[in-house]
Design a protein that fits this description.
The complex is a heterotrimer. Chain A is built from eleven helices and no strands. Chain A is an all-alpha fold. The longest helix of chain A has 37 residues.
Chain lengths: 293, 505, 336
Amino acid sequence: MLYPLRRHGARALFGVTRLSSGVAADATGLVAGLVTLAYLVVAVFAPLIAPQNPAATDLGMRLAPPSAAHWFGTDALGRDALSRTIYGARVSILVGVLTVGIATTVGTGLGMLGAYFRGGIDAISARLIELLQAFPYLIFAIGMMAFLGPGFWNLIWALALKGWIEFYRLARGETLSQSTKEYVEAARAVGYPHSWILLSEILPNILNTVAVLATLRVGYFMVLEASLSFLGVGIPPSIPTWGSMINDGRNILFVAWWVSTIPGLALLVLVVAINLLGERMRQVLDPHAKSTG
Amino acid sequence: MRKGSWVIVLAALLGLGPLDATGAAAKALSFVLDAADNRANEAQAIVAQLGQVGISAQVRIWKYAVLLDQMKAGQRAAYMTDWGSAYFDPFDLAEPKLTTGGRGNFSFYSNPAVDKDLRTASSTTNEAMRKAAYLDAQKAAYTDAPWVFGYVLQNIEAASSNLDGWVPAADNGETVYGLSHRGGDSIVVGMRTDSIGTLDPAIPPTRDTESVLRNIFDALVAHTPEGKVVPQLATSWRKVGPATYVFALRSGVKFHNGDPLTADDVVFTFERVITPGAIGGKSSPRRDLLGPLARVQKLDDSHIRFEFSAAFPEALVLQALVHFQVVPQKYLEQAGEAGFVAKPVGSGAFRYVRGTVDSQIVLERNDAYWAGPSKLKQVVFRMMPEPSTRIAALLAGEVHLIQEVAPDLVGRLQASPGIQVKTAEGTRSYEIELNNKMAPFNDPRVRQALNYAIDWTPILRDIYHGYAKRLATAFLPSGFGYDSQLRPYPYDPAKAKELLRAAGY
Amino acid sequence: MRLLGALRRVLLTVPIALGVAVLAFFSLHLLPGDPVQIMLGDTKTSVEQIRSMQHELHLDEPLHVQLLLFFGHLAHGDLGTSIVQQRPVAAIIAGAVPATVELTVATFVVALVIAVPLGLVSAIKPGSWIDRTMLTSSLLGVSMPAFWFGLLLILVFAVDVRVLPTSSQIDSTIALERVTGFMLLDSLLTRNGAALASVVRHLVLPSVTLGVVFAALLARTMRSSMLEALRMPYVTTARAKGVAEIAVIAKHALRNALIPAVTVAGLQIGELLGGNMIVETVFSWPGLGRVVVNAIFAKDYVVVQAAVMLYAITYVAANLLVDIAYTFLNPQLELG
């Protein structure tokens, strides 16, 4: 079984290289890519970059405005906002990436299976999904977080459980249209097993659209995490996330605008960059796709 | 983005260290400190302090409802709680929190001697004996240290400078009768609650509801802002027995619909509260505030007798009666429960005009008020649970008085022209309760160690800007029987370590 | 045939709403926390009293019994009584819905006013400075957390520069007769100019907060679908035939461009409902969103169940409307 993997690996690498150069060919794409990369670097090397310990409280220096000593000021416990913002990048990025990863995998997998095999399961899942979609998400999220308790993985699951439906629909739609194509008929006629057809033939063909959607959704989930933290059902406060930092500053907006505004800006810039990246990717990979923003 | 680079990044993120960069080494004593949103900052500051003494603690933030459930089930170890007292007496604070099995006793503390003291204090009418009992209880509680004793927060409110005659009340009440406004005769009050729940004085479980209702309805007695009891509908009272009191009713008082207020209304009001199922099939949740009240009887048109089934001190009787406003019997029986709540009629300084309990309540001056009409023609109580919204509204001149200003924002308000900020002694104690039935806090030495290990000074000074006062125990300085000689646990890390060592940590 | 499809969809609403209510019921009941305790707080109430209150509310019965009671009441049109407010849920919801509806309508108006002209112009003149500005600002719009934006707006427009009010629906000092419950309508019906002005002023910030995000999405969609439509052969044909540019745009391209826009609008209903909750909290807007959020934290099952059902019905109804709009825009499509 190694051969198809190697083949796919090589194909993938080639595809990614082509994608990157395609994206970078456009000025906006290049800038967006660099900004995203910069955020990633900052997140990974946070302990080396952050000037101070993000957990170091200093009650005497509470709510200090931005200054030479604290470029972004301090928060309600005297912690350096710059360091917290830098560490916050880690969690926000991880949340976005992991959530999208899980939602994509689950959604795409189920969607492909549903579309390929049709039948009773497909019909039932369609109804179930209608039910799930009609349930107001925020209530569901608050309920889930209150039930499971605060925590990083609980939040990821709560977010992913909302996101997978989109990928399910997309994968299902794409798989349906692929299933009727000749190469699939041919493969079935020859006698290839279903799993091979799904993984080696159909998946690579729908991967482009899925990848574009995934990239565009990373930012969305980061913002959703911020919203949940705003309502107080996000990640515990000892771990800095941009969402909970915005929430922390919400009641002291008039005396310490920097506590809420700066993490919000950090989030905004990253999400804009990722969205731009996603748009550019779509132009490169799928120039004829209908854009739905 | 390169697919391969994601893998590298993920590996690096996970490998280069924990997400929160705290590197507290695990020592012997380690526990989880639970808190609700409102004390998250304080909890983290405390945990940081404990770390310096070698105690490793972690903060966990909960939604209050969920935490309450777990606390009561005895599943948590240490939790930050607070408890308000509707009385100016330990009867409503120390008692529910320190008696064995008390309603507010989340620490599962049990000391029969303390139980006896508290029981004595609520059932004897000898003031000296009551005081002695409370002093005794305080000393015992101090030594037992069932909690980490904390502080009482001052009640900070802010108003427009044009508002005269305003003094914040210690019990967060918002009685606007004595106020006047130089910019007009109509004011808006920004309330901190999102809903006052009901307009029926027999039902409300929260003091915010009562704050609004006290403007529409009068009670037999009332509180001054400092917490003293003064006559309102009752002109005088006397004790005729260890468990019996007679109140003299003021004459000539009329309800907003013109009906005269008589002793019958008073009797009706209280029977409605103490009789189960008397409010449209439901019972009043405030019944126990009246202690062992057994019967209310009309002696004549202007005298009512209150009979208790056990000796009940006069101070507590008065404190209880503050919270029960008189409702009109005739009107209520005619309109029915639903009708009464839809259009309440009382005898207070303001009459109800319109409103919804979760948005705003509009009141208008009662020109026939027995104490003389208020200088204000219209008062609106607006529900504004978002603190920053309240402050913004005050700054913008949309409201004239707001409740509960966070200490961090006082500076900004004081710096604004046209705003005045005032404080009052608070009636809410804030502490860290410890589960006395669960290790490590079943050992009194560990509990005491914790009391010595926390330095409240920077917390009260920096986080609360000095608007808080240390408490030695669960007894409030504004309450009866407070032991001012008892000093709160001092900050003594050496003593803390010594106690921990003795306890085996 | 179209009618049958529509009918089927309408009938499907019922089981969906019920299914959603059951989900809400079970999830809330599995959550820790007792509404009676929460409501009572520190009030001096004995354990027996608490138990009797719980009994009155049937909270001590097994779950399936409570569920049956709920459906029983529902069959009689009784949505139950709020645990916290001791008022009928129907009254609470009826009191709060108009405010949310007004906010949603205002949001739509803001979004359409911004998005449609911008989307059209950008599509007609792709690459121009208008187009580029629109793309950039809409990108910002979709990337922004709504509550953060709302807070900023309050900070700038209501506190620093006191042009707009900070919260609520109307000045407390203005008396508005309640005819329909919809403040805009009521102030028009009772010819109350001061009230009308006040309500509009109060609507500005919250609807802009939600509307900008919505507009960003709508504008991008309109732009790309207009671009697609303008590339279609029939457009080139029409141009070649000498049809005026405006006619070309209005008659041919616009209609086809509206389809994806309508889809997006329909899909966003769910988002809008959720966004409402957060924005209503920030602006102390007396709508259903705020009621629901408070009810969840107070574990007021009754209110949350009813609200969730209402949201589900709204969501399904909105989708249905979108599908119907489709068939009008494109008669070739079948319903259901």
